Amino acid sequence: MSFDPNDYKLVPQRWFDDFKQGERFPGNSHTVTESHFTAFRGMTGDNHPIHYDIEYCKAHGHPGLLAHGLQVLAYTAAGAGLSPHAFGDALVAFIEVSARFLKGVYPGDTMYPLLEIVELKPQRTTGVIVMRATLHNQKGELVLEGTHRLLVKKRPH
């Protein structure tokens, strides 16, 4: 039996035409730790004390270090779930993102991301898949909502 890495797929290949409005793609749950804050600081250079100084946070009414908004947005990354594997070779690009931050995220919070297809915009050879992104914490509170837009190829003829 021969093996070809190009045939190794976690889920079957899908094309723009195969996706349906209402499909949901939950991501992996993830508990936030202070090490994530440190990694984010190292990656971005962001050094605002609201993210790294516990006494500053307490003085401003926060129970702990407050996660940076872009760090929270990163927990909705499609690549953390199965959706990019469903797109496979059909995915052209992640073309747009928007988000509203509704609640603070602190070390010890567990994030539960979900992407849901809310619109399919067909084009000639591709289409744009609009996905609603939500992020809930362990208390069931919605901490982020937004949209991701992906450019995806239509099925080849």
What does this structure look like?
- The protein is an alpha+beta fold and about 160 residues long.
- The chain has one domain: Hotdog Thioesterase (Thiol Ester Dehydrase, Chain A).
- The protein has 5 helices and 6 strands, in the order E-E-H-H-H-H-H-E-E-E-E.
- The longest helix is centred in the N-terminal third of the chain and has 11 residues, at about 35-45.
- The model has no long low-confidence stretch (mean pLDDT about 95).
Topology:
Blueprint: E1 24-26, E2 30-31, H1 34-44, H2 49-52, H3 54-59, H4 69-74, H5 83-87, E3 91-101, E4 110-122, E5 126-136, E6 142-153
Key features of this structure:
5 helices, 157 residues, 6 strands, six-stranded antiparallel β-sheet, 33% strand, Thiol Ester Dehydrase, Chain A, alpha+beta
Helix content: 10-25%
Rounded mean pLDDT score? 94
Please tell me how large the radius of gyration is. 18 Å
Written as H for each helix and E for each strand, in order along the chain, the element string is: EEHHHHHEEEE
CATH homologous superfamily title: Hotdog Thioesterase
CATH class: Alpha Beta
> What is the CA–CA distance across the termini?
30 Å
Gross morphology is: elongated
The largest sheet, given as strand count, sense and whether it forms a barrel, is: 6 strands, antiparallel
Please report the total strand number as a whole number. Answer: 6
Low-pLDDT residue intervals, each spanning 5 or more residues: none
What would the CATH topology be? Answer: Thiol Ester Dehydrase, Chain A
